[in-house]
Batch of 2 targets.
Target 1
Amino acid sequence: PALPTAPLAPVLPPTSVGVFAGIQPSGELHIGNYLGAVRRWVELQRQHECFFCIVDYHAITQEYDASALPQRTFDMAVSLLAAGIDPDRAVLFVQSHVPEHTELAWAFTSVTPVGELERMTQFKEKAQRQESVLAGLLNYPVLQAADVLLYKADTVPVGEDQVQHIELTREIARKWNARYGEGFFPEPQALVGDAKRIMGLDGQAKMSKSIGNTIGILEEPEAIWQRLRPAMTDPARVTRNDPGTPEICNIYHLHRHFSPPATIEEVAQKCRTAGWGCLDCKRVLADNVARVFEPIRQRAAELKAHPERVREILAAGAERAQVVARETMHGVRE
Ligand code: AQP
C-alpha cells in the first residue's frame, strides 16, 4: 500500500467522543505494547473516532536522555504508522504539541487527592528506581486523566498496568462533575484485551521499555534471535534432557501469540518430553516473531525514508486534536 500522507481536512466532528490511547516515547515500541495495546488500536480505528497520542510529557517523568527524545518521538510515530495506525481514520499526534493537555492537568490537580496518587502501583514501582522521587512521577496519572478527558473519550484501550490509572481518571471526572457541573466529563472505561500483561524476557517483570527486557517490533530477525537466546525459561530445565512445564514458561506464552496452533501444540509436547531444548524452542519463536513483523518492518523503512511525511501527519494530527482540546478547555475555564 501507498505511504500514508497527512490528511488535508479534518474528518472528525469537533465534539467527537470515542477512544483515546497514549504511548510514551520512552524507548522502542515493543511486543508487549503491540499485543497489549497497539494491535487493538488498529482495530478500533475502523469503527470509532480515535485519538492516539505519543505522550512525551509523560516520558520525562523518568530518567531519560533529553537529546534522544525528539528522535524517539519520531521513531514512535513511525512504529505506530507502520503497525497500522491510519491518519485518515484516526488522529495521531504528540502530546506536547497540544498544550491544553498540561493546562487541564493543572486544573485536575485541584480535585485529585495526593493519597490516591501515592497508592498507585506504577508510582510505587517506578519511585523505587528514582533516587529523589519526582513530583512529575506522582502526578503522572493526573496528566493521563487530562489526556483522556480533554477529548471526552469514553473508551481507553490499555494493558493491565494502566487499569488503575483509568479508575483514577473516572474518579477525577466524578469529582470534577460533582464540583463544577454534572455530566461535563464522561467516566471512561478501560478496554483490556487478552494479552493484557506480556512478561519481559527476564521472566521477572512485565515487558517494559525502561527496563530493557523487550523485543522491539522493528528489530531485525538476527537481533530478535539474539534477544531471545538468553531469555528466561522454565528453571526446571537445567539441562537439555530435563522435561519442563510449558504453562510456567514465558517463551511458551509468547508462542501462543506468534505461532500457528499446530506449532503451539508441538512446543508444549516437546517441552514436557524434553524433545526440544529451550534453544530449539526459542529458535522457532524467533523465526515466527520475525515473520509476523516483516510487513511492519518494511513499512517502517519506507516511512523513515520520508521523514517529512511523518512530520506532516503529526502536525495535521495536532491541529485536529486541538480543535477538540480548545473546546473542552473553554468549558473548563467557564
Ligand atoms: N508488558 C505489557 N503487556 C501488555 N501491555 C503493555 N503495555 C505496556 N507494557 C505492556 C501497554 O502499552 C501501552 C503503552 O504503554 P506506555 O508507553 O504508556 O507505558 P507503560 O505501560 O509504562 O509501558 P512500558 O513499556 O512499561 O514503558 P515504560 O517502561 O517507559 O514505563 C499501555 O496501554 C500499556 O498498558
Target 2
Amino acid sequence: MSKSVIITCAPTGGIHTPTMSPHLPITPEDIADAAIEAAQAGAAVIHLHARNPETGQPDPRPELFADFMSRISAESDAVLNVSTGGGLGMSREERLRAAVATSPEMASLNVGSLNFGIFPMAEKHTQWKHDWEPEFLEMTRDFIFKNTFADLEYVVKELAHGHGTKFEFECYDLGHLYNLAWLIDQGWLEPPFFVQMVFGVLGGVGADLDNLQHLHTIAEKLFGDSYEWSVLAAGRHQMSFATQAAMLGGNLRVGMEDSLYIGPGELTPSNAAQVTKIRGIIESLGYTVATPDETRQRLALKGADRVTF
Ligand code: KMH
Ligand code: ZN
C-alpha cells in the first residue's frame, strides 16, 4: 500500500498583493478562517505568513501570528508551520521574530539565496488598491532573496536547537539540495528532513517535469531513507505538479501563497477549494490523505502541546 499524502496549504504568503484577488486572506480573522477551512478539507499542515490588516502588506509582527495561530488551533489539530521567508525585503531578524515568539512545531527554512522576481505580475494591473503594491513588485527586479550559509546556521540554531522546531526546507533549485546536504553534514539537524521542492519562481528552477524527476532523483541519493519530500509549483503549474508529486510517492503543497487560481483564468474562491480539488484528484488515483497526527509521527514533530501561542 502506498503512503498517505501530506497536504500542506499556504493560505496567504507574502508574494501576491490585495489587488490581484479579492479572496486573498489579509486579516488575522481571514487567515484563521482560511486555514481552518483548508484543514477541514484535508490539509494536514498550514504554512503561515501574516499581513498588515489595513494594507495587506507582509508583516512580521508576532502578535498577528499569535492571533491567528491560537484561533486555528482552537478549531483544528493541523500542524502549524511559521514562515521564516517572511516578506521579500524583511531583515533576517524580522523574518525570525514570529517563529521565535510562537515556538511552532514547524517553520520554513529557505535553503539558498536566489533572484526572486515577482515584478512581471505588475503587468496585469493598471489600478491598484494600495500604492505599496506596484513598488513592492518592481523592487524585486533588483532583489536577492538572501539565505547564506551564515543565515542557515543562525536559523537552525535559533529554531531547531532553541525551540525543537522542525523545518520545511524550501529548495528552489538543484544547488539548494546540496546546501541542505551541507547543513545536515554539520550535525546540526535530526532526521527526518522535510524537503519542499519549489518550481516556477522566476530565479529558481522552472516548472518542467524533467526538473521534478531530476531533483527527486538527486534528493533520493543525498537523503535516502532520512527524508520526506513535497512539491509546490507557482502559478498555473500548481495542480499538475502537485498531482505528479503524489504519483511519484511524494507529498504536495497548494494554497493562495503559490497560486491565486483554481483553473485556467479562474480565481480560486478560497484556499479550501484548492485543497478539495487536489484531494479529489489524488483520491481518484487511489491515494489517501495524511491526517495531522500521521504527519506529526512521520516528520517526528514535537507536538502541539509544546508551542507558545
Ligand atoms: N512563496 C514560496 C515560493 C517561505 O515562506 O519561507 C516560498 C515560501 C517561502 O514559502
Ligand atoms: Zn511562505
